[in-house]
C-alpha cells in the first residue's frame, strides 16, 4: 500500500481484505508482479488509479486463477495466467476483468514481466502505428522494459530497429537483443537517422528531433512524458512529410478495449515467447515485501529490462 505520497519508504506491506470477484472478473493468486514507471508516479501522488481500480500499485501480474465470478467463459480455476491490471498487482491476490487475462506463455514468475510491455508495444507500434515488414522503428529507451520488448517484437516481424539509450553498456545490450543500430543519446543526435515509426517515452523534449527523424509517411507514437508534456510542433514540416503524431495510454482504457489488445497479444506475441523467439528480459527478482527496494532500483536507471516483485 501507499501510506502517503512520497519516496519509496511510503510503500508498506499491510493486511487487507481478500478481493472478491465481481461479475466478469476472476481472482488471481499472484506469483509475481513487476515495477513500472507509472508505479513510481502513483507513489509520488501524480498518477492516481482510474475510478474503481485498486489503490494498490501494480499494473501486471502472473499467477493462478483461484476464483471465478459470474459471466466468465473460457477460464478455469487452476489456470496459470498473466494479467494486465489497472492496479492491485503488489499483492497476494488480485481481482481482474476476464478480458485482461491471458495464458502464461513461459515460466510463471517470469511471465509477470510481459503483460504491460507486450500490450503497450502491440497496441501502439502494431495496432495504431501499423509497423510493417521492412520498415524502420526507432525506439527511445531501448534498454527499458518496453524497449527490450519492442526490439524483439519488431525484429520478429521483419522490421529494422534503431534504439537510443543512455550508455554504451545499454546500447550493447540492445544490439544483443537484435537492434540493428544503437545510439548513445548523451553523445549523438538521433535526429540524423530516419524512421517510419518512432516509439517515444520522452515527449516534449524530443518532439522537434522526432519530427526531423520521420520518413515521409512516418508515424510518431508518444507513450511517455519523461521529458515534459508541452512542446512546439512544426506543423509545416509534419505536413511536408505527410506524417502523423499520436499519443496513447493503456491504464485508463475500458476492459473491453484492453481485451482486444490482450487477444492480439495472446494470438500474435505469446507464440513467439513460447517458441523462444522473444525472451523475457529481467534485471532483478525482488521479494514483494521489499517493493521499496525495487522502486529505488528503477529510479536509479541502471537496469535493463524489467524488475519483478515475487510473492
UniProtKB/TrEMBL annotation:
Answer yes or no on keyword Oxidoreductase: yes
Which keywords does this chain's UniProt record carry? NADP, Oxidoreductase
Q: What InterPro entries does UniProt report for this protein, alphabetically?
A: ADH-like_C, ADH-like_N, ER, GroES-like_sf, NAD(P)-bd_dom_sf, Quinone_OxRdtase_PIG3
Where the record annotates domain Enoyl reductase (ER), the positions are: 6-309
User: What would you give as a GO molecular function for this chain, any one?
Assistant: oxidoreductase activity, acting on NAD(P)H
Q: SUPFAM superfamilies per the record? A: GroES-like (SSF50129), NAD(P)-binding Rossmann-fold domains (SSF51735)
Checking NCBIfam families in the record gives: quinone_pig3
Protein name in UniProt: NAD(P)H quinone oxidoreductase
Q: Which organism is it from?
A: Acrocarpospora macrocephala
Native organism taxonomy: Bacteria, Bacillati, Actinomycetota, Actinomycetes, Streptosporangiales
Amino acid at each position: 500500500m501507499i501510506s502517503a505520497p512520497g519516496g519509496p519508504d511510503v510503500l508498506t506491506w499491510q493486511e487487507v481484505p481478500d478481493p472478491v470477484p465481481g461479475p466478469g472478473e476472476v481472482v488471481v493468486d499472484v506469483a509475481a508482479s513487476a515495477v513500472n514507471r507509472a508505479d513510481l508516479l502513483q507513489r509520488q501522488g501524480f498518477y492516481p488509479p482510474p475510478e474503481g481500480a485498486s489503490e494498490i500499485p501494480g499494473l501486471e501480474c502472473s499467477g493462478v486463477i483461484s476464483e471465478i465470478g459470474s459471466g466468465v467463459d473460457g477460464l478455469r480455476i487452476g489456470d496459470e495466467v498473466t494479467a494486465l491490471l489497472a492496479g492491485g498487482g503488489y499483492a497476494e491476490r488480485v481481482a481482474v476483468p476476464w478480458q485482461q487475462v491471458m495464458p502464461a506463455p513461459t515460466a510463471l514468475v517470469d511471465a509477470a514481466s510481459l503483460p504491460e510491455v507486450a500490450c503497450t508495444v502491440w497496441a501502439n507500434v502494431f495496432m495504431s502505428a501499423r509497423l510493417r515488414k521492412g520498415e524502420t522503428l526507432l525506439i527511445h529507451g531501448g534498454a527499458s522494459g518496453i524497449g527490450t520488448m519492442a526490439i524483439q517484437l519488431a525484429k520478429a516481424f521483419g522490421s529494422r530497429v534503431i534504439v537510443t539509450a543512455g550508455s554504451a553498456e545499454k546500447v550493447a545490450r540492445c544490439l544483443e537483443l537484435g537492434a540493428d543500430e544503437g545510439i548513445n543519446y548523451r553523445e549523438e543526435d538521433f535526429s540524423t537517422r530516419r524512421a517510419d515509426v518512432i516509439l517515444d517515452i520522452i515527449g516534449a523534449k524530443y518532439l522537434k528531433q522526432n519530427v526531423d527523424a520521420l520518413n515521409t509517411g512516418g508515424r510518431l507514437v508518444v507513450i511517455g512524458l519523461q521529458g515534459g508534456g508541452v512542446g512546439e510542433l512544426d506543423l509545416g514540416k509534419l505536413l511536408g512529410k505527410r506524417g502523423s503524431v499520436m499519443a496513447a495510454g493503456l491504464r485508463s482504457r475500458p476492459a473491453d478495449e484492453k481485451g482486444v489488445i490482450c487477444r492480439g497479444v495472446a494470438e500474435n506475441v505469446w507464440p513467439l515467447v513460447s517458441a523462444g523467439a522473444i525472451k523475457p528480459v529481467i534485471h532483478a527478482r525482488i521479494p514483494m515485501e521489499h517493493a521499496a527496494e525495487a522502486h529505488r532500483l528503477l529510479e536509479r536507471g541502471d537496469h535493463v529490462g524489467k524488475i519483478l516483485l515475487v510473492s
